Amino acid sequence: LPDGEKYKDMGTLMKVFDKAVESRLDRRCTFVALGGGVIGDMCGFAAAAFLRGVNFIQIPTTLMAQVDSSVGGKTG
Questions:
Q1: DSSP string of 25-69, one letter each residue
Q2: Closest CA to 49 of 1, 19, 13, 3
Q3: Judging by DSSP bridges, how do beta strands 55-60 and 30-35 pair with one another?
Q4: Coil vs helix vs strand at 58
Q5: pTM given for the model
Q6: How far apart are CA 42 and CA 3, in angstroms?
Q7: 40, 65 in Cβ contact below 8 A?
Q8: Which residues form the 3-dehydroquinate synthase N-terminal domain (predicted)?
Q9: How many CA atoms within 13 Å lie on the side-chain side of 63?
Q10: Does domain 5-69 have CATH number 2.40.50.140?
Q11: Does residue 7 or residue 2 have the better pLDDT?
């Protein structure tokens, strides 16, 4: 996924869903977010919405994501 606040939109979310369906993922899959806050937010929301919720692991790679978005409880 691209990073940056401007990519937090339905178009990006649909790309995630399209790739997940194309890969034939099912409810046993796990979405892994390796990146900063935007990546974590998008991946977390996608994991919560895909097939009514799949497992989610967040690996924050920026200081801001480590101290803010990955522990905020908004996603996942």
A1: --TT-EEEEEESHHHHHHHHHHHHHGGG--EEEEEE-SHHIIIII
A2: 13
A3: parallel
A4: strand
A5: 0.84
A6: 10
A7: yes
A8: 1-76
A9: 0
A10: no
A11: 7
